[in-house]
């Protein structure tokens, strides 16, 4: 009885591979580009290619100090699938710094404690250097067509106005 069930293992494994593998991974093509704001490279910007056409997959990248990025398709690999995309660009701003009166030494007075609490409560929300319109692929004005043949190098010049 044990031999009969062991002889079925290869068939079961093959069947599971066929069912689990599906069509396999889609073909990916190298995608690079440059992001600028008012003509200057933007470091640390997140670039997202959201699919506008069937068969395309979400692809993302982050800019380096020269504003250059390379796309990766999450869970598939480096590059992007061929197709049309809307493009969004975001950048997280650093936390707002506020002055702590304890930095000058000594103990805190009631007035200093109140000042700390007021500063913490009233600290401005960090503001991204990139205008909000670029954070949405529908309002950014940027699109991209990733092609199977040829170079997929894109430039996204943003303005602060």
Topology, please?
Blueprint: H1 2-7, H2 9-21, E1 32-37, E2 40-41, E3 46-51, E4 59-62, E5 68-70, E6 72-73, E7 77-78, E8 83-90, H3 110-122, E9 143-146, E10 153-158
Parallel strand pairs: 1-10
Antiparallel strand pairs: 1-2, 1-5, 3-4, 3-8, 6-7, 8-9
Main sheet makeup: 4 strands, mixed
CATH architecture group name of the domain at 24-93 and 135-148: Sandwich
Give me the count of strands: 10
Q: What order do the SSEs take from the amino end to the carboxyl end, as H and E?
A: HHEEEEEEEEHEE
User: Tell me, what is the CATH class of the domain at 24-93 and 135-148?
Assistant: Mainly Beta
Number of helices: 3
Strand percent estimate: 25-35%
Structural category is: alpha+beta
Low-confidence stretches: 1-22, 95-102
Task: Output the CATH topology of the domain at 24-93 and 135-148.
Answer: Immunoglobulin-like
Amount of helix: 10-25%
Whole-number mean pLDDT: 78
Overall spatial form: elongated
C-alpha end-to-end distance? 77 Å
Rg estimate, integer Å? 25 Å
């Amino acid at each position: 009885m044990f031999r009969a069930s062991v002889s079925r293992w290869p068939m079961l494994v093959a069947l599971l591979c066929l069912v689990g593998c599906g069509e396999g991974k889609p073909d990916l093509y190298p995608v690079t580009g440059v992001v600028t704001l008012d003509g200057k490279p933007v470091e640390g910007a997140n670039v997202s290619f959201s699919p506008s056409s069937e068969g395309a997959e979400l692809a993302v990248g982050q800019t380096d100090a020269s504003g250059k990025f390379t796309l990766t398709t999450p869970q598939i690999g480096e590059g992007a699938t061929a197709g049309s995309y809307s493009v969004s660009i975001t950048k997280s701003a650093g936390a707002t710094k506020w002055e702590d009166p304890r930095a000058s030494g000594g103990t805190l007075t009631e007035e200093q404690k109140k000042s700390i609490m007021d500063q913490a409560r009233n600290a401005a929300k960090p503001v991204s250097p990139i205008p909000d319109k670029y954070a949405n692929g529908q309002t950014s004005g940027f699109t991209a067509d990733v092609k199977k043949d040829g170079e997929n190098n894109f430039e996204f010049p943003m303005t602060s106005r």
